[in-house]
Every structure is written in structure tokens, then in C-alpha cells.
Amino acid sequence: MTLGMPKLAPSDDLFENLAQGCAEVHRRLGPGFSKNTYEEALGYELKLRRLGFQRRIARPVFYRGTRLSSTYTIDLCVEGRFIVDIRAEAALSTVHRAQLRFRLRMTGIEAGLLVNFGGAKISDGLVLIRRAEGVLAKPRDALGGEDLDAEPLERSVA
After folding, report:
1. Quick check: is 8 in a domain?
2. How many domains, in total, are found in the chain?
3. Residue 158 lies in a domain
4. For the stretch 45-76, what's the b/e string if a residue is b when 16 or more beta carbons lie within 10 angstroms of its beta carbon?
5. What span, in angstroms and rounded, lies between the C-alpha atoms of 13 and 141?
6. For 7-20, how does the pLDDT look when each residue is reduced to its tens digit (9 = 90+)?
């Protein structure tokens, strides 16, 4: 599986399938488990949906051209087109969004899904982010068109 992707719209079938898979995991487990539990359950859900993915991908860190012994980890890469950053927090923060943007920038993948399973509603914990554009939208259409009180669009400054 390659770590690259073509341009992607939020209405992409893969995105919708992935967002619905996250909703199913949240519906069945609810909040309260660890990040690792949600990661494993989402992996199982992706297999049921016949989506290819890699889990816990360790990537090297370079500083001034030198490879450090440290690594950063990508929770899931789905179909080589999406990075999925899984959280189990009370709420998402700007730091979580920045960390996903970093992973997108470092891998060259254009889009990522920040997923927080810790909240009461999964719709409050799904944020689609593009590498160059920042937050695109909450997945309103992917979860059956319910009103998700979308946040204002953010733009990355880099």
C-alpha cells in the first residue's frame, strides 16, 4: 500500500464508508474505552467493509537531514488514501488537529480523518482535514445528513 493519494472530496465513497464505520464502532462500544480498543474495533469494522488498511505505522523522524532514533506513529492508513488519527478524549483540541496535519505533511497523503470516540456523539468527534487546506468539514453527508453543527473552516498557515 502506498502512502499517497489523488485529490479527494468529502463526498468520496471511501470517506463516507470510513465515517460510517467509525459511527458503527461508536454505536456498538460507546465512549469510555482506550484508544487501542477503538483502533482494534475500527480495524475489524474496516475488514468487514472490505477496506484495505495498515495499522500502527512507525515513521522515522529526521532533524537537519539526520534520521533520529525517534519515530512517530500513524494509527491507520486506509486504502493508502486516508490517515485516521484515533482519539478517546473528552473533546478534540487544536493540538489534535495540528498533529494530524503534521502526519499528512510528512507522508504526502492529502486527507486525514480525526476521530474522537470519547464523546457522547460520534458526529462531534469526526473531522476531515486536508493537508493543504486545514479542516474541510464535519462529515454531515456520511452520517445520514443529520445537522452536525459544523465548525468554521480553518486554514493552515503553512
Report:
1. no
2. 1
3. no
4. bbeeeebebebebeeeeeeeeeeeeeeeebbb
5. 11
6. 445 447 888 999 99
Which of 98, 34, 48, 47 minimizes the C-alpha distance to 76?
47
Least confident of 29-38, 66-75, 129-138: 129-138
How far lies 124's CA from each of 16, 41, 66, 153, in Å? 16, 19, 40, 15
Q: Find where cell 453527508 sits.
A: 141
Region 31-55: mean pLDDT is: 96
Higher pLDDT, 137 or 132: 132
Residue 30 phi/psi, 5-degree rounding, is 70, 180
Q: Is the residue at 23 inside a domain?
A: yes
Write the DSSP assignment of 127-144 as a string of letters.
Answer: EEEETTTEEEE--TGGGT
| 81 is a domain residue | yes
Which domain range does residue 78 map to?
A: 13-142
The grid coordinates of residue 21 equal: 464505520
